[in-house]
Please model this.
Amino acid sequence: MMVEYFLRLALLLPLLALLIWGSLRLTRYLQTRMVGAAASGKRIELVETSLVAPGLKLAVVRFHDREILLGCSRGGLVRLGEAQASVQPSEIETQ
Model:
């Protein structure tokens, strides 16, 4: 009985480690892909997000030299405010 437990443990622990490693690699790949898409001349850019409550988030999106504050919930998106963009992405690269 104890041998069976150790055999299962010996099989499942490497499998669990492989799943964790794979999910970390996938997360890193998707993050670099999203950053690359924003830097490739897209007109819309997600500047910042903030979790207000479970299921309720604030997001700042840059679109056509404007920063738009959005409220994101399970019910949808609501535009809360808009302002002129303070720093352009091209200005950050040259500094």
Summary: Helices lie at 2-39, 89-94.
